[in-house]
Amino acid sequence: MQGPNWDEGTAYEIKPPRHKAELVEVGRGTPMGELLRRYWHPVGLIADAEGTPRKIRALGEDLVLFRDGQGRAGLVHARCCHRGTTLYYGKVEKRGIRCCYHGWLFDAEGRCLEQPCEPEGGLFRAKVRQPWYPLAERYGLIFAYLGPPAKKPVLPRYECLEVMDDDEFVEADASSLGGGGPPIIPCNWLQHYENVVDPFHVPVLHAAFSGAQFTTAMAAMPHVTFEMSPRGVTVRSTRKLDDGKTLYRITEAAIPTLRVVPNPRVAQFARVESIGWVLPIDDTSFRIYVAGRVKQPGDLGRMRSTFNGKFWWDMSEEEHQRHPGDYEAQVGQGAITIHSEEHFAQSDRGIVMIRRVLQDQLEAIKAGRDPIGLIFDPDAPAVVFEAGNYIRAA
Amino acid sequence: MQGPNWDEGTAYEIKPPRHKAELVEVGRGTPMGELLRRYWHPVGLIADAEGTPRKIRALGEDLVLFRDGQGRAGLVHARCCHRGTTLYYGKVEKRGIRCCYHGWLFDAEGRCLEQPCEPEGGLFRAKVRQPWYPLAERYGLIFAYLGPPAKKPVLPRYECLEVMDDDEFVEADASSLGGGGPPIIPCNWLQHYENVVDPFHVPVLHAAFSGAQFTTAMAAMPHVTFEMSPRGVTVRSTRKLDDGKTLYRITEAAIPTLRVVPNPRVAQFARVESIGWVLPIDDTSFRIYVAGRVKQPGDLGRMRSTFNGKFWWDMSEEEHQRHPGDYEAQVGQGAITIHSEEHFAQSDRGIVMIRRVLQDQLEAIKAGRDPIGLIFDPDAPAVVFEAGNYIRAA
Amino acid sequence: MQGPNWDEGTAYEIKPPRHKAELVEVGRGTPMGELLRRYWHPVGLIADAEGTPRKIRALGEDLVLFRDGQGRAGLVHARCCHRGTTLYYGKVEKRGIRCCYHGWLFDAEGRCLEQPCEPEGGLFRAKVRQPWYPLAERYGLIFAYLGPPAKKPVLPRYECLEVMDDDEFVEADASSLGGGGPPIIPCNWLQHYENVVDPFHVPVLHAAFSGAQFTTAMAAMPHVTFEMSPRGVTVRSTRKLDDGKTLYRITEAAIPTLRVVPNPRVAQFARVESIGWVLPIDDTSFRIYVAGRVKQPGDLGRMRSTFNGKFWWDMSEEEHQRHPGDYEAQVGQGAITIHSEEHFAQSDRGIVMIRRVLQDQLEAIKAGRDPIGLIFDPDAPAVVFEAGNYIRAA
Fold this sequence. Notes:
Largest sheet of chain A: 8 strands, antiparallel
Largest interface: A-B, 39 and 45 residues
Oligomer: homotrimer
């Protein structure tokens, strides 16, 4: 029997830690891994595919990216299908990539074109194929489709990156803008993705703790409504401004991993300027690719937060502790957060919703239905987001 | 059939390695973990609890230590009970610690005082509690109780730290004095704790190998008797001195992890000056906190062994190999020693006894009885040790 | 149903990775581990056994090598049989090695000679034995036998290291000559060993990719026949030379791990000059010991390939990527290659054969028969290899 003076709520009572594997793990054959594989994901900048093979890790798979002498980008399984040596040591030629070990030559779609150590250059070379993935280049990014071939959708177009002013153009960035840290962030992708539908952390983490990282307006606690959308979750925040007007800010999380977040520095009152794709590298790390409308080269990079003029990587451990940002908040949840220890409140409605949406898509796949957001019609119109910073009279 | 010329005793015959998990593993829910959790353990110096959150790892648990603006020390589960971000990035305020992510404020006992992102500051905040542990400050140290609340004992007082000369005071040290190496020692705690009841290694390891690290007297092989005590194991060593007198040295290991070891430099002939607590950080590392009577600040630190005037951390790998000490002997047993390969001899009686005492306490807990050494009466007298260096006429 | 426009051969179809454990894993009790333990393996240079204990890791076992004051080399289990401290911190004396912790003294065959902390120096010391392994010194190397004592064979003699010109002598090398990288190579031993019977990679990896590392002749694609031998696999390569003559090169892989490879720089047309032993350190690393006939001290080391005058360890990551060698090709297969993803071709016949030979020996052991290549007669003649570079009129 527990007496009145006993300590309550001590850590001794914590249950063994558990995470929801189906929501966070991304390997081939896992529920979320298969859901993510139904969509195109950026795996590099267009400039990353070049004459020198480049290591790519995406959804837990080790791949090699290159561009052959005819300009075709190729993304292949890192291990040569012959004897398993990594094609990272391969030589890129006009027609494809050649393995360093026995010289097998593969084209951008994995077809074996030459087997120089075999009689007559390889009479049976058509019987082997280097595992590969289809690519598409758009918005400065290289997108890959790692899913079941029969289910391959069209790579979507987005209105916010298609329709622009005369002095605007689209620029891409691979430095994990919005992640609050270095390009590769050592925790599960969902910890970051949930942050997208969490507008309440802004006045705490990005203002009270770190000084108003964004604008004065953003430092105020917003009034927020959350809503499921055909694309994912939409977050509408309103904040009263000093002049009596209202800042009306809409942020979207679009399945599978799109951050559709207007500039938190609220440089303009208009529809969203950029899209971020959260790429799960594996279960315990991710990176973010961004494409956005800009007027000057480098505009995207200039969105990166600094503290006292310092970039994240120039801050000391002590400065990181005193002035944490998204990187600290999310990596601080652990490599994979412990779902069994969470306690949700009303302000977490967006997170509850995005998990619900993801769960629903897992159910859809299990039931043989398509998850939301897939486009199969090449002539489909561009996707239009609601996201943006808007000003209202009251 | 084995012939007369066959090699005997080769390593080919070694059985697969096994360790006694119940004696060494310290996690919550393990036998030894639960035994250790029935006692108070030091987790820091009093000065370690301050306005900047500090990471603490003890018995395999990740915790955060702080001192609020009212001077109360708090020790909480590192993960915020809301969304799991570590409170290491929290801000310490007058009333408690505030999480960086959504600003929940917790007092030193984990009560949630504010939820700034919630309507009306959190109408349901009483429903959550940040997992915490009770603390007590004494002898320059902060002690924590990580066990079942209903079983919480009184933090014991020790005569050797309570009764002192006019010019003495108690000082604490967190540098793992007695461990023979750096503050954090990368092997299981029991490997060190067993060393406490092993007086025979002194003339070998600390004299023949490393030059007489202690005194000439200590370099002689002692005559030793071992005895179970109400507190653990008592070791009585006698050594003949050059002047015909006898050095009579008593060392104690007191359950659960107390090193009650008189100064091996035998600076005085008197009762023990200090107590060391071996804190298991986790299964494969530990540290030692010490509190002792001194006359000058820093006296404890001056007990640290040096070799040719060098501290352990200033010695080269070659010097460590030639002049090993306790760190090398114990870390050299592996991260967790292999019990299945041990061969005890008569001089190992103390180790056999301390394991027996520990096993007996595991049995006691299993049977629903209290292990030895627990005090539940706040007015109980201070614990008196026999330990000390004494001189006898013959 | 798969339609005509679907992508074929994508990496989405790759089966879960598997390796053939019985071929690659070397621990005691594993099939290959037991096969390898039926043979002598070099574990160091003769000079490596000296008065300072040296850590040795072989076939996944941690051992300590020393030479006592009487000149006898000893190889013992690293953990002292008393309390498990590593004998790396031991002191080497005239009669053996003494543990730092309690001073037990062991001779080169593990007999316990002294227990200084025990009454009368240890009345029962004959009851313990430090696990040890028999050694033999030859060709500048120390060979150890880690297998079942009843099966211990004779350490073979090799004609190529026994019969030599007046100005020749045998030299040994421990720098993993032939491995194409540093002394310790972080991948499974079999990946390297298979490379020995793979003559086709030479004109690709060692010529087309890295510039003719060897000679112009070696850069030509050879005509090759493979053959099982009483010792393992023999590879015969012929290449037409510019002068109309034929370079006839024979390479052998001799069970268990011998590389019998004539100098690829083809300095002379004669029988093989050296033998390399591939020592599995554990499942995911190996090293190579070499002994060979030379005329000048250091001749073996001068066989090491350089690129643009640089040794492997002086090359940048970019240079390694552009000019890969055996190290890159084999470590590039992964810590343990994935056998389930291999696709063999005709030029891989040697690899298929060496795996067959190894499998046959695993079967032999399972059936209670001796594997090939074991010699039990101390007066057996030296092993003669066919290997060499020879010149033929046509």
